[in-house]
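Table 4 source record.
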Amino acid sequence: MLKSSYALALSSLLLAGAVHAQVVPPAPLSPDQPLPPTTPATPQTTPAPKLPEPYGSGLRVNLSSDGAKYLRFITWHQVWMRYNENNTNTLRAPSKPESSQLDFGLRRSRLLILAQLNNRFLIYTHLGINNQNAVSGGATPTADGKKPQVFIHDAVTEYRVNKYVSLGAGLHYYNGISRMTNASTLNILTIDVPQTNWPTIEQTDQFARWLGIYAKGAIGKLNYRVSVSDPFLTNASSTPLSLGVTTGPTNTGTNVAQYNPQNTGHVYQGYFSYDFLEQEASALPYLVGTYLGTKKVFNIGAGFLYNKDAMFSRPTSSVVTLPLAAGVDPFAAVPTRTHDMRLFGADVFYDSPLGADKKMALTVYGVYYNFDFGPNYVRYVGALNPGYGAVATRGNAVPQSGTGHSAYLQAGLLLPKNLLGSVARLQPYAAFQRSSYEGLRKADGDRQAAKVLDLGANILLEGHNAKVTLNYRSRPDFTNVNDIKYRPEVTLQTMVFL
């Protein structure tokens, strides 16, 4: 028994020694002994940046399995930050003149809802705001820019009769005159479309829209759109006395036409274009400004707008003694002349990829207008005008339309990919407009031309869906028609649409 106990104790000691021997650290290496080889660590690779997927059909809800019935939503904002050298005698606030300023504003904020029930029926609603800044564009535009009115731009129902014609009705955007009078604001080449393209905007129309009926379609490569609409009442507070200048007891005609508040004639419009190369889509009225090299398009077009008795005037030989007798209707007591509104345009549009590899694209558009509003008519408009008050030439206003003619040319070049990285693309552009209206005459009787130059560039982050635009404008200040000064205007725009 005692021997067994000794044997067990000896076995335990031997086992403990063996265990201790296994954990004894190795002797330290001498300084001149080489280090043992080590297994190299596997380098970690940085994953390549993932490019965004193409935007595709956007915010779309299919109502049928084949996608023939759908609901489509489009929304966009165009935000401006701008430095503007104001026209002479501009006010920034009541009794506060301002020679220049930095301002911020919403050029456009819109929502469009489109539904296709089948291949014959279409309905869309377009609403939003325009031109809101701290000075104007609000619910009370002459006071401030607060709480702008959200209003309907388009409200249309359309029926496709056959492959050649579709008929529609409602508050529509099927305009005549030119391609740019039907321009989409989602894919403009320059920072904005010249207001001259919408010569009747907010006068006889509702922000370039009309209440009426239209027909549109294509016959081969010939595209057409024609419409008949009611003119909105405008200039309603004007009377024949508004067409004159009062000096003492007399009111003398000026021979300058104004919008006729008694205009009840229909507005007839049409625009026709021929596609020499690829056919353009025509499901909606909005025509593309630049395709960014995705299509090869070459079109020529022409259009018109006609509105009988849309304007009225009084010659300088018309002299009225004031005051008129109580209860006398000035329209009956003071003779006036009425003038038909005749507006015509002709244009050309070219958009194509360049080179065998199609890494670049060129966009060119030119248009010529001939307008007849009656004698000596001129209207001033400034987009998102930063000037306060009612003076026509305030802020950044230029001669927007008038009896006479105007020509506009723009060109842009989409530069190759990877110039600004793997996502962004650069598209520099230039545009020039020259207008000559009979109501803009110097003291010697010669017409004073209005010239506007734009130079800028688009940085396309996701095509037109997300872009930044920087634009420099040189525009004429017509405060003194005999001494035209050209003012600078620098605008940075950010735009996103989904």
